[in-house]
Amino acid sequence: MEVTGFFTAIIIGLIIGALGRLVVPGKQNIPIWLTLLIGVVAALLGTLVAGAFGVDETPGIDWIELAIQIVFAAVGVAIAAGTYGRRRVH
What we know:
By secondary structure, the protein is an all-alpha fold. The chain contains 3 helices and no strands. Helix 1 (3-23) crosses helix 2 and helix 1 (3-23) packs across helix 3. It is elongated, with a radius of gyration of 14 Å.
């Protein structure tokens, strides 16, 4: 992966994290930095899964890859909100 591709993946990951948070219903009590981190990881995982299914390189916008990334982000946000919300402050 080239340097420009890496920075593009981070920027898209940040957007994916925000979209994943919007998809999950209810209020998520997790910090924004965690949402953005989940988005970056979801974007990378989504790209790998799309590549495994052969839908990572399509003409135009890769809607299937984008949908997979958002699903990963939504699942990640839901898991993080469930575990992060259970932490107690002493």
